[in-house]
Amino acid sequence: MAKRSTNSVPNVELCRDIYGFTVRPQHFQKYKQYAAIYTEEEAERSARWERFLEAHCEDLIAEKIKSGIQEDHLAAELGRNIDNDGGRKLEMWGQVRPSLWPIEQALYSRYKKIKTMHSTGTSVSVAEAPSELAATQSVNSPARNSGVISEDEFEEFYDVERSDVVSDAASSTIAVEEGATGIDTNEGSEDYDEEQCPWKEELDALVQGGVPMALRGEVWQVFVGTKARRISGHYQALLTLLADGGGDSDGVGGLYKGTSNNYSLSDVGILEKWTSQIEKDLPRTFPGHPALDEDGRNALRRLLTAYARHNPDVGYCQAMNFFAALLLLMMPEENAFWTLTGFMDDYFEGYYSEKMLESQVDQLVLEELVRKHFPKLVSHLDALGLQVSWVTGPWFLSIFVNILPWESVLRVWDVLLYDGNRSMLFRTALALLDQHGSAILTTRDAGDAVTMLQSLAGSTFDSSHLVLIACMGYQKVDELVLQEFRTKFRPQVLAALSERSLERSMWSRRGSLSSKVLATQGTFKKTSHTNNSPMGKKGDSTVEDVGYVNSNDSGMNGDSDHAPNALQDEAVDEEEACMADLMDQVKWLKAELSRALVECRAANLRADELENAFMELVKEDNRRLLSAKVETLEDEVAQLRQTLADKEDQEQAMVKLMLHMEQEQRIADDARWHAEEDAEAQRETANALQAKYEEALSALAAMEKRTVMAESMLEATLQYQALDQSAPVPLHLKQNHNREVSRWSWPRLSPSNIYCT
Amino acid sequence: MATRKRTLLKVIILGDSGVGKTSLMNQFVNKKFSNQYKATIGADFLTKEVQVEDRLVTMQIWDTAGQERFQSLGVAFYRGADCCVLVYDVNLLKSFESLSNWRDEFLVQASPSDPENFPFMVLGNKVDIDGGNSRVVSEKRAKTWCASKGDIPYFETSAKDDLNVDVAFQCIAKNALKNETDEEIYLPDTIDFSSGSTHTSSSCSC
User: Fold this and answer.
1) Which chain B positions have a beta carbon within 8 Å of A314's beta carbon?
2) Whole-prediction pTM value?
3) Fewest CB atoms within 10 A around its CB: which of A20, A25, A261, A334?
């Protein structure tokens, strides 16, 4: 099984690529186009890696050779080259070539930090792994605590192991690195000691450029820290259990159902639940691949079963078959096991476990990122009623295996394993959407969009371009950012999970539970009678269930043989009578009964919870009603206030108006007063004029008097003169003179002259 | 008008791991059978156009992973399904016994408006194996179960020999359409191109 992809797979078969994997017929033309490019790239990167390794590793190798490791290494190398059939045991484990040791040593610090974090932190499943391993190493330490182990303990067992393999050469490194404490798991410059690893950037570029096929298996091991993780003998121990434990019938309990991690040979009798799934998937793992012959499948079976035993929290999850097979194509079996363990436990912790929590969280995170980076695409997909995660979920779960062309898959894995976390998944997905998003925008229904996205992803042969976009274009999508998002979304997923299990249990209470109890009652009337008392405490729906059970009781009493079938479904076929012996049935039914009881208790608890929640709701509802009333009242008050204000406004307006009128009136009064005054003045003037007129009249009268007087005087004078006429005075002279006087007197009497006087 | 309309039907295939869900889908869509199918991770998807009576119908078929834990993934795409196909292997009792579970799971996740009358379909696959001698679930038993769950239509199929596959999927399309007619009244006509995309979405989310 240790066949290397480089030498084992000839590129003859029409529909298989250089790695021996099938190429889809619709993509074959495109693959042929890219095959030449791949060959060119491969030559280029081989040369670059060779130069790199030569330049940076000589000193260290020299040191190691001095301390005598070369011999071990040679032995291992020899062991690996032994023929498949003859040397199976020997080639289970192989060392990586010495030229890679410096990288191994540099990356070892990262592995150690992760471990330190896990063993001191609260995180469980990975932290459990070393404790379990330690348990197998130490001589039968019974009932070892499954929880957290102290760092010292871990250090101890690690050092022992390490010195086995590498002797003191490495211990100096450990000493150096022990000083450096860090909690950051993400791959970054802080993970490296600058002095120790001056070529980190160069290595970054090399990895992004791809790992040469000839080195890939070993380089991956170095990235994951396979050697450091290995505990010699552990894999063999797991295999021994495997050999002893096979061939059992279906059991209710699994070997690792509990939390305890230590296992003894007596437990092995119980068959693990994963075996049947693994068996189903063995032929469905890269079917037809030349390297996956019978030996290959056997190795795959061993690997998967060993992992399921090693990490019972995960057990076996579909998709792991592909990972395991891929690793087996590139490295010896035990190396593949520790590599698989490494990235399953560290990179993908919580991802493939029973609840697949992290997987769901990651999809929410991705959706958020897609929303941020491609708003147009998202709104299009929203309009189509399509969630990105329906497509990207399988991408992530299979780490792009069977999704992208193989060259691209391997290039993505190169970076992912090197990074030490799964952030590359996100970057790759974003790069794919970046490349193909515009095409997706042209689709008109969800089906077209999915089909197109799948097909475009499947034909992303330009792996260098993909990795470049992923690593450069989406550089900022790193582990720190992702962790932040995960923390944000995790509660949401947890809530959805618990809601789902609640709904599920309500369903089963309505459906299958009633039938289960029904069957159980039919067979064990007495036992189920005791069962009824806790059942009675349940809510109304359960009481109904019980009632239903009782009403059908008599019907079911007759054929107790059929009980197991009735447990599974209500339609019992007479012909399919169960032939199992009665004692087994009893046991099984008892188990079923206890399970039902547990379920019942859980249901009770849930009912209480629901009731509480309901009460809360009711309270809240009341509060809401009250607040609604207050609001309406407040509204009314506000309205009244408004009216009042309006009225006030009006009043003010009126007052203003009145003031204005008053003002006007005053003005009018003034005007009248002025007019009166004027009139008075005129009257006075008139009076004055009258007075003057009268004065003038009186003056006139006086003048007339004087005129009369004067006339009379004149007459008198004339008379006198006439007396004198006896005297010689001409008469006409006398008359002229008379006329002259009267002429002068008259003008003086005219009214105009009166004023002058 | 109905003949020109492009109707979308969303079909979900459920069933235990290895009963032949992917094979059935591929036989129906691509008319091909292979012994070399890969295990389905998460979900897979194919579309096929079929003629039902006078209507052209696009079937969107979602093929799901059989392993139980994949159910805990947000199976959001159950929602809006027009039909659910439950598949079991007639040679494997456990796969038949799981049908109830799959049905419940679907109803819980998809929460259709009328769970009692939601169109299901049961397919007993792999009847070709060993000439039918290795089968453990009789047709009668399967039909009884289907009858007890509200007269679910039942077909015995072989994806390998292409037995009943087309017939079954035709029936699926027909039943899904029958269920759809009530809701159709509320939907705008999809022929209207001016706002085509929004209409498409509304018709597939019905």
Assistant:
1) none
2) 0.63
3) A25
